[in-house]
Specification:
The protein has 90 residues and is mostly helical. The chain has 3 helices and no strands. It is rod-shaped and about 85 Å long.
């Protein structure tokens, strides 16, 4: 009976390690996209950041100060974030 329990424990350990390894592979695949996907995402994010900067500038000219500053900060943050992400994924 002891040998049987040891065999079941060993099989369970092996199955558990395989499951963890499979999960880690999935996480790696999902968190690190291919280069071309990361590049396209950074380009789209940069365009959105630029649009936010333009909208913030127009809002500042129209004297909507609160909206303008919030939009400008969001645009700058978006552009910086996308640039850092793009450099990290290269």
């Amino acid at each position: 009976m002891k040998r049987y329990n040891e065999k079941i424990l060993a099989d369970t350990k092996k199955l558990s390690q395989q499951s963890v390894q499979k999960a880690m592979n999935s996480v790696t695949h999902l968190t690190k996209p291919p280069r071309h996907v990361a590049r396209v995402g950074s380009i789209v994010g940069g365009i959105i950041g630029g649009i936010l900067l333009v909208v913030g500038g127009i809002s500042l000219l129209l004297q909507y100060h609160t909206v303008a500053w919030v939009t400008l900060v969001a645009g700058v943050t978006t552009i910086i974030s996308n640039r850092l992400s793009f450099k990290r994924n290269q």
